[in-house]
Amino acid sequence: MQNVSPEYIQFVNAWHQIMVIAAIVSLVVSVIIFIIYKVKLGAIKSYKGKYDFILRNQIKNYQYFYFAIAAAIFFYGNTVGDITVTKSLVYIFVRLFISLCVAVLFGYVIYLILKFYYPAKMEKQLNRLRYTPRISKAGNEMKLLSEEEEDVHLDEGMQAEENVFSVDYDVWVDEETGEVLIEKYSGYLQALECGSCGFRTLTLQSEEIVKPATEEEEGELIKHYKCTYCKAERHTKYPIARVLKSLNEYKLPEDYVLKGQRKVKSIMIEIISTKGDKKEYFFQNTKQASEFLEQFDFDKEPEIPA
Ligand SMILES: [Zn+2]
Prior knowledge:
By secondary structure, the protein is an alpha+beta fold. The chain has helices at 6-43, 47-77, 82-85, 89-131, 147-150, 156-164, 286-295, and strands spanning 143-144, 167-173, 180-186, 191-192, 202-211, 219-227, 233-240, 267-272, 278-283.
């Protein structure tokens, strides 16, 4: 056993107390970060407001929360093994270094989880908020219109924006009072699942109009995506809807028939819900298929026309 001065033992004790206090303060800070976040989120009344708030702040706030916990781990680590530490000054540095390593590792793992794994989970939470039926001023449950139906309620500027600038408008309608609620969602903020690495880290980088739409013809748009994790790129073509001459033009044709109907063996319709569930249906001709589409309701089991 080495000779240790009483001053050194005093120092180790004082150090211990400071570290305990610092660990407690860090934990309190983490709890405060968490509570402030939840209170702010809870104070927002509308689903759309919550959606935007979560999209902008949730991951950042969870990061702060876990970083404060990492700090608490570091300070707590510096209180462990006082008996060994009192034997030599070297051990206090060894302990400092190990605590730092453990805390940094913890913080880094959390950072990776929040950056690459967590966004897919958050997306489900966001989808729930986006697609929960809105309640109108009259207290009725509103109906979310389909892409075809909603265009009647969007002005030309909004329609153009929806077609081109990766903006999605959701239109909710109270069918009894006619109240309309329009919500705007930006495609640039949302991340998609990457086909190469499987993480939800594929984000829209830019869009270009290859061919503008006219009153006669559909246009063409290419969206350029890049994965922030594996750097894979994806370029997807989208049609730009024809410029409408008038609003009543928009209804789907009543008996929609494919050209060369006789050569068609069967028609498959795949319907994908906002939750990602898929349903497939097969039909012998386009007439059956369009009858089916008219009656289709995702929550009810449909009758297949004979
Ligand atoms: Zn990827």
